[in-house]
Amino acid sequence: MDRTLPLTVGEFLVLRRRRRPVCFGLSPAARAQAEELLARVSLQGFSDRPLSALSGGEQQRVLLANALDPLPELLLLDEPASGLDEPSLEAFETTLLALKTTVFMVSHDLEQARRVADQVTVLDRSVRKSGPPAKALEHGLRT
Questions:
Q1: Helix (H, G, I), strand (E, B) or coil at 80
Q2: Number of independent structural domains in the chain
Q3: Residue 23 pLDDT more than 80?
């Protein structure tokens, strides 16, 4: 996301669904839609904030909110929580756990995999282990 975009969070979230320029502001329906998306990622009330004013964790959650509209059948995430502080990480993981869709996530954070994954596949040039986190990650990563 280009942090220099002169948009608010709400404008960014409804941009692809708009037919009129965002410089005219958000309609009440568009504002409600943006707030609904922000509520999914625990960022209620952020729709009027400039994108440039967001922390890295808030920015990641706004991008996740954008990816959830409409809710995809499969959500692909590549290291989505890298660089997040503890409160942002907790909010991000809470959002992932509440999703009613399949999430395929690449992560090097094994503790995060234990917390949020139903299934884990450990790769090292080939599949080393696969299964529920407790089984796939037991005894470290030795094969």
A1: coil
A2: 1
A3: no
